Amino acid sequence: MHKMLLLFSHELTVDQREDADASLLINEFVPLPLDLQELWGNIPPMKPLLSDYLEPFYTWIKENANSGDYVLIQGDFGAAYSMVNYAFSAGLIPIYATTERESAETRMPDGSVKLERIFKHKMFRGYKMSEGVDHE
Fold it and tell me: Is the pLDDT of residue 132 over 80?
């Protein structure tokens, strides 16, 4: 049994929890503390380098994960890339959730269109370490 550290800006859905239990044998979910959750959800878009900004996340992972645990990483592309690389270097398994998107349009009485998007969890997919471009 393994832990899953949650390095993303949302709460897990029921479907995601059930999938993690069944397919990854997760017995513990470790969410970010509220202060780090706030930082992760508001990564400064004008900050050219993120290494100092991400230091609290490296520390959090180091203090909460054991080799072979999973880390669900989603968010700002540059920050996620750095954290995925860190997870690999720490012997962890970085993953992300895949979804199926459905959309529905509703014509409103005033002529406007309301667009609704529904995201349904499908599976967890592992990030892949690569030594170059892979054209699978």
Answer: no
For residue 104, tell me if it sits in a domain.
Answer: yes
3-state secondary structure the chain: CEEEEEECCCCCCHHHHHHHHHHHCEEEEEECCHHHHHHHCCCCCCCCCCHHHHHHHHHHHHHHCCCCCEEEECCCHHHHHHHHHHHHHCCCEEEEEEEEEEEEEEECCCCCEEEEEEEEEEEEEECCCCCCCCCC
In the chain, the number of structural domains is 1
Report pTM: 0.83
Structural domain includes residue 135: no
Give the percent of the chain with pLDDT over 70.
95
Residue-number span of the structural domain to which 38 is assigned: 2-126
Residues in a beta bridge with 72: 6, 95
